[in-house]
Amino acid sequence: MWSPATVARFLSPPARRVLAAVAVVAALFFLALGAAWSRFFVRGQLAGAPTAAGVFLLPQPRATRLLASKYTEAVADAIWTRVLVYHGEHFARRLVPHDLHAYMDALTALDPYFRAPYSWGGFAVTFAHYSGVPQPRDILYAVELLRRGVARFPDDGELHGTLGYLLYYELPRWVRDPETVLRAKIEGAEQLRLQADLGAGPDWMVLSAATALEKINLDELAAGLLERAALTVGDPNVRAQVLGRLARLRQDVDTERLRHAADTLAGMALRELPYVTSNQYLLLSSPRDRARMAEGLLPEHAIGRRADRQWTAVP
To answer: How far is CA 304 from CA 142, 231, 300, in A?
Structure first.
């Protein structure tokens, strides 16, 4: 039997060196081939796996709050930063942000009175899909998120307005169930009414909210909104439209008296507190002024229901 040592005795020293070099080259070749195959195999196995940055590592919201202990707000700030980066990265790379809802749940559980996630999430969650087309799942979650927001911030007109927009205008475009659409429109119109009552947004928002109420046959609510708004709208052109719409909805309303009361209120606000609106003047003026307005200048409904609070004249 021929062994390498036996073969080597019949070779000259130069031949031995050549054979050794060939053996080394062959060994290196097969090592490189094995390394290349291993790399190809591993890359194939990891092709469908998420990246480290794409792995959601937070526990359930209640457990997250428990683990954060006394540092819930600090942890919420860290998650908020992560949410913004996560949303932007997935949108830029045209990826579906599967964990966005879970991040928002954890964030709002840690700091329920952190307003930014509610106002940001109303639109960012709705249009989170890279196509720019709202997905029903995202719209429904954004609505639920904003409901939490208005429960925490009942006097925030912007949150009411965003929720009303999603419910009244956006959700019916993508949800086909008629009963769900009707309930959404009713709730959305009410949220738009609250936004207008709170004085959030431009004056014409009152007309938009009244139109939304009228379209679902809530004429009485629309008339009440217009009646209150007639006293606080600052734009004369918008006020004229408000009074015209009110006269159409309520035949018995004295629009001239209401117009006179609105002009008087605007004059008093301009004279005494020129840096605030008529709406703010109702809150900031003295009780004597409010009583004087209620007695002679304003009809009994002048200081009415605003943002689910009953404002009454001072005797």
So the answer is: 31, 10, 8
